[in-house]
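Worked example 4.2. Below are the chains of a multi-component assembly; read each line carefully before continuing.
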Amino acid sequence: MSDTNRPAGATSSQPAPPLYAPIKRRSFFLYAGATAGATALVLAGCDKDPSTAPATGLVNVGITSTNDLGVLNYAYALEQLEAAFYTQLKDGDYYKSLTAGSAEKQILDDLHYHEVAHRDFFRAALAGNAIRSLEPDFTSIDFGVRTGGTGGKLGVLDAAKAFEDLGVAAYNGAGRYIQTPLNLLLAGKIVSVEARHAALIRDLLAEATFVGDDVVQVTTGGPIVAGGPVSATPTGLERSKSPAEVVAVANTFLKAGSKLDVSGLV
Amino acid sequence: MNFLLLLDRISSVDAPSDAAPRRDLLRQVGQAGARAALATLPLALAAPAQAALTNNAFDAIVLLLKLEDLLVDLYTKALAAPVLTSAAQAAVRPDFVLLLEQQRGHARFLRDNFSLAGLTPPAAPSFDFSGRRNNPANPVLFPDVLSDYAAFLQLAQQLEDASASIYLGQMPFLTTDKALFDAVFRMQLVEARHASHLRTLRRTAAPAIAVKSWPSTADPAPAAPVLVPGSGNGAAPVSIYTFEANERQISAGTTVVPFPTILTGLNAVQSRSFAEAFDEPLPTLQATALLAIFG
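Applying the procedure described above to all two chains together yields the following structure tokens:
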């Protein structure tokens, strides 16, 4: 449970990027090695339309008032982050230490495939309306260990859990902004698989934690919907996060210049 | 909550000429009287409307409630039966207590919406998990579900997978009510988490079944499959996983995202991932037929 909150807690207390960026980048290479540099290049190379965005400033996903482009770009941004994470994970020492054919290696491979498919789905769907390729900042993750990295860093499964649960809560909180039924269904089809991922990673970390009170109203009641009736008993409903709550966490995993602005999602 | 608005909306829906009697009634008596009329109408009468495959928000909620009642009943019966009272399953028993509690929460939530709208919610039917449809003369489709753990997990996995898909199938009919949609979305996600966990349980049980945590063409087919009508008139019954094998995703209009050409090189994935990465809706026809197998 505390793991979910750790990414936010671990980095949100730090000041804004410019001052810290060089230090972060250095430790980034220290931990992930030369392959991380290659990954960063790959990510940058994914962008066919070279970015002209300034190094600082935010990437605005767009607005919701006229069409679904803003919310689709929001989903695209989160899928970029997840795909980049699993891509880098596969270059990391923990993944490489797994026995070929082991259950955990297969799972991490599949999660990587799915997230890449999601990312490229949105990239294709958005075409010329897509935001730029984002540059991740995974300095708070130790890709060499399964859980509990030194110095408060996340292990790979800790981070996977954080990303998957965040993704589910994000789609969940963004459903209300989607206007066309096709896009609503597409979001549902994707997030349903994200929920399966989240449950799987949680079960890998601790058996039978596929739902926890941090992600589902398991032991507590509460408002069933915003402004709706309040249930005194557990509802068994997934918890959701607003775009602002989501980017507060997501931006801690994005480099300066790639951090997201979701103020248009209203 | 907005369920009242929803009822109002149903009453003004343009129905086909062979509309369900209930909806004709709604149109005749008008909005104010409709709620009272509906309240006195036994909701067992909702059954013919389901059979007529009406796709609207009200019928979607009726369908989802029956689904939740089915899962509540499955776990209630299993927890009282040898399959989960046996010492061999002591370690996993709490998982099913948790699953039951959440399905109960969902069923309660859906019932509360009926009550808030001044309606008497439909009662849970009498479910039969053998597949004999409460008639001992019928053949057993799902043997030993309440006595054999592997048989139980096999059915429970299919029903939780189907549950996630049935929710997805009903979402398009709930889009006009953002609050209701939001709640249903949040239940769908919990169903997906449940399905994932049941698949993990099968993978880690003895003997282990090599299923993934999402429907995959790599999964071994269930020995006792839950069959639903195939697509198209007169099509042979198919497994619920037939729908999950879809590899084509439409991004807008008729545009299909060309995964085989964009997921290449450094982004190459195994081709089964095109289908795995997206859960698929189970259409109303198939969802209704599936629920009718059990009650």
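Take a moment to check your reading of the output against the notes. The first strand of chain A starts at residue 59 and ends at 60. Residues 1-55 of chain A have pLDDT under 50 and may be disordered.
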